[in-house]
Structure formats: C-alpha cells, structure tokens
Amino acid sequence: MERRKLLAASGAAAAVLPVLAAPALAQAMPEIRWRCASSFPRALDTIYGAGEHVARRVAALTDNKFRIQVFQAGELVPGLATLDAVQGGTVECTHTASYYFVGKDPTFAFDGTVPFGMNFRQLNSWLNAGGGREVLKPFFETYGVVSLQAGNTGAQMGGWFRREIRTVEDLRGLKFRIGGFAGQVLAKLGVVAQQIAGGDIYPALERGTIDAAEWVGPYDDEKLGFQRVAPYYYFPGWWEGGLNLALIANKAKMEELPPLYREALESACRDATIETMAKYDRVNPEALRRLVAGGAQLRPFPRPVMEACYRAAMELYEETSAANPQFKRVWDHFKAYRETQLQWFRVAENSYDSFVYAMQAQEQQARR
Q1: Is there a contact between 50 and 243 (Cβ–Cβ < 8 Å)?
Q2: Of 158, 231, 237, 323, which has the fewest CB atoms closer than 10 Å, so is most exposed?
Q3: What's the pLDDT at 198?
C-alpha cells in the first residue's frame, strides 16, 4: 500500500514538473533581436530564402526569444556592402557569399568558392571535417566577424552571353558580370570583369553595359529574366563548383549570445545548408527544360577555353600566394584537401556517375 502511494505521488510530481519548468525556462531566456542584411533580392526564394530559413529556425529553437529580421539587398545597405555594415555594427549579421569581398582580400573567396575548386560535398567536407573552418577562423577574426556555413547552390551555370564563345580570343574585351576571384582569372584572358549585385544585373545586360552575365543557375536565372536579352546559355560555371553561402556575424555580438542561442544559430545555419542544396536540385532541372523550350541556346564552353581558364587560375593562385601570406596559408591547406578529394571522387563517385549518365543517354536515344 505504501509503495503504491509513493509511486502515485512521484507520478503526480513528474506531471507537474514540465508545467512549472517550461515557463521558468522561457522567462529566463533573454529577448534578443538581430538584423540581417542580405546580399540578395527577396524575389530569389532560393538564395535569399536560405537567410529566411535561418531566421525561422532560430526563432523556433528559442521559443521566439532570439529573432533575426532579414532585409533584402538595398533595404538597409547595398548588397555588396553588407560586410562593412556588420563590422561597423549597423547590423548584427549578413547572409551573403564571402567571395563578394575579395576586393578587401582574395582570401575571402575560400569561404565561398574558387575557380576549379571543390564541389558542394567536397567543400562541405573541408569546412566541417577537414579543418577548413579552423584555417579560416583567424582570417575572419582580423575583420572582427565570424562566418557560419548557411546554404549552397551546387555547381552553377556559366552564364548568359549575347554572342557565342568559340575560342579564347572571343573572351578578349568581353564585359562580363562575374563575382568573386574568377573575375581576376578571366582578366588574364582579356575579359573586363565586373561585379554587380544580383538585382542590378538585368538592366546592365539589357542596356548593353555588359556583354554577358552569370548568376547561379536555371531557376534563379529564369526569375531574373536573362534569357530575354542574351540567348546563349553556357556551362559549366567552372568558377563555382559549389558556392557556399555564409551567415557572417559581428564577433562581439556573437560572443554576447547565450550558449543556447549560439547553438541554435549554428544549428539553423547547418539546416539551411542542407535545405538550400536540396531545393536547388529540385527546381533547377525543370527550369532548365523551360528555358531551352523557350529558345535558350545551351552551349558547353569549348575545351580549349576551359583549359586556358584552368591554366590562368593556377597561375593566379601562385601569384597571389607569393604576395599574400594569409591567402597562401589557406590555399595550401585547401589545395592539399582538394587533391585527396579529387582522387577519391575519381574512383567511386565519378565512375558511377559517368556510367549511369552514359546509360541514360543510350536509353533516351533508343526511345527517339
């Protein structure tokens, strides 16, 4: 009898505890509000949406105590000036692509993507399991910020051109909107590279201010309407084998966060990386079919052009390493990891993919 009373009392106490503990825990959590300046227009629900995904997850994981308000490019600051806003304390964070800031230091590119670098899986491995994040951390600390992986586009397309690219000579004098370190590579081949924020690309292409433009891939490109003013759609975007998106936060503000909030933010960013890549893989195939059906002329970059670009990229890495110790430190680590990844992917991943693609092509040909 006494045992039954004790069990009943224990059960009643256990039932009451969550009711008491949850409000107490919520009350103990501080209300924190951050502003996030995105480098992207709101109309792009994929790449801009990754920042919104982070904000939603953070709010959900903290019972709405830690909330991040995302502003599209230009609402608070221009899309390419968001790092300055974070450093200056105008906003607490930005959702961006780190390679937008190579004008400050080319080392920023490794946090985004570099020409003939690694694909999404390889870069994800380098950042999270291969020491990449640790290698980049001191570099970002010199700017007073912290960078968290928060999305990826996968391999991108090579962009939209008003005229065909048949030879390396066709690149000379080409006014090309292109982001990141790749513009410096193409400059070696005579291209006039220009970095223009996403929302400003179409007007520049329409007016003829530029001759060609790259952005991301079929889904986003279709939304921006490039197919209406430049008919030739080239692939692959050798400068973006897998663009890592980043949430860059003010270091002091990050350190002020309670541990639970920091974990919520980091968890939300990891989740956004998976979700964004999954969404791109879902929407790009259908968008590419629509673009081609609508008249877009799909073209591969000629192999001699690709080879010339590869050589120019490798030359630029060595030249930049000789002049920039920070760049060299990260490039040496990145390059060694890339080499091991490429060796492994050639054995299993690429051989599998190549066989399946070839068989699918045969089956499609047989059905025609």
Answers
A1: no
A2: 323
A3: 82
